[in-house]
Recover the amino acids of this structure.
């Protein structure tokens, strides 16, 4: 998200305050003439390559908190810094909609305290920049429907503020629930006769334990299913994919799943270890060699293969010598 500098507002319903300067964005500065404009007599000519930046409203963060009945719940300076990271249109959106959003979040149907609402506004003002029914009511409703408390849902947005960009989390929540549903599966590849993990590994439990894992449910429909399929193609069982989502959720994002699969294949090829053994190691705890490049990993694994003949020794080196490259 691009930050915006403090300038004078051209919009209405402003809160006067800490913004400085009378110079307008896109206008002429003191002492300059209209002839300094590039390519024409209108400011729009300067933005031919993209959208014209939205006006940045003047904001007095302390007055904003007071108007919302949230005085003393947040640091005005920190709130202003968070606001200034938003585009002008979203800053204006906070001024226009924060009262309605705060009222909704503190209503009996949601249940945040004023202190929690103020802290959330400080950390994630973007969530307050739309009407409640366009963001906060929808997203909080979806998270609470799967078992999170209002406070835990707020912590998700405070930890991963880009979650407020989503119009819905429903597809990701459903796909993550389907992945975690295999947490109770018996891992027959390791000879387990009983479930290897507790029964309470739900989406709500994961997001309560690791609020940043909300990143997973912000993905588009089908994304998590594809990442899980890649890991299973690399040899992981559904239970091991569930364990990975629980312990290392970031590995299911971007192309990390494909990288994990590639590195497991390299180590398996060079050291001759069983794929189930390797994927179990990855699922249970993130070994440092996952951070190595494929070429470095292949070189180190090949060197280990030359000096160690016994598979038991090679297994022991996986978390020692192989990790020295990281």
């Amino acid at each position: 998200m691009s930050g915006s500098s403090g300038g004078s507002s051209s919009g209405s319903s402003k809160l006067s305050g800490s913004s400085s300067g009378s110079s307008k964005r896109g206008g002429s500065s003191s002492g300059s003439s209209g002839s300094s404009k590039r390519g024409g007599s209108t400011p729009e000519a300067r933005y031919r390559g993209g959208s014209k930046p939205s006006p940045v409203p003047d904001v007095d963060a302390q007055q904003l908190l007071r108007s919302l009945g949230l005085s003393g719940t947040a640091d005005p300076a920190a709130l202003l810094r968070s606001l200034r990271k938003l585009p002008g249109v979203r800053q204006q959106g906070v001024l226009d909609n924060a009262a309605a959003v705060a009222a909704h979040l503190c209503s009996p149907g949601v249940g945040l305290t004023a202190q929690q609402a103020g802290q959330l506004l400080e950390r994630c003002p973007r969530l307050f920049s739309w009407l409640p029914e366009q963001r906060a009511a929808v997203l909080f409703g979806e998270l609470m429907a799967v078992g999170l408390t209002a406070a835990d849902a707020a912590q998700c947005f405070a930890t991963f503020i880009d979650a407020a960009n989503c119009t819905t989390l429903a597809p990701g929540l459903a796909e993550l629930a389907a992945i975690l549903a295999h947490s109770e599966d018996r891992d027959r590849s390791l000879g387990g006769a009983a479930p290897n993990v507790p029964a309470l590994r739900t989406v709500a439990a994961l997001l309560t334990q690791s609020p940043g894992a909300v990143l997973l449910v912000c993905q588009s429909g089908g994304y998590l299913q594809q990442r899980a399929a890649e890991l299973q193609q690399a040899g992981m069982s559904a239970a091991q994919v569930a364990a990975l989502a629980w312990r290392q959720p970031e590995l299911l994002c971007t192309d990390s799943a494909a990288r994990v699969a590639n590195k497991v294949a390299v180590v398996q090829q060079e050291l001759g270890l069983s794929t189930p053994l390797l994927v179990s190691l990855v699922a249970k705890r993130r070994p440092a060699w996952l951070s190595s490049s494929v070429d470095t990993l292949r070189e180190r694994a090949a060197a280990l293969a030359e000096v160690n003949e016994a598979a038991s020794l090679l297994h022991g080196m996986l978390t020692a010598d192989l990790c020295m490259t990281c």
In short: The CA atoms of residues 106 and 113 lie 6 Å apart. Residues 58-167 form one domain. DSSP finds 15 helices and no strands in the chain. Confidence is low (pLDDT under 50) at residues 1-50, 186-199, 309-314, 316-326.
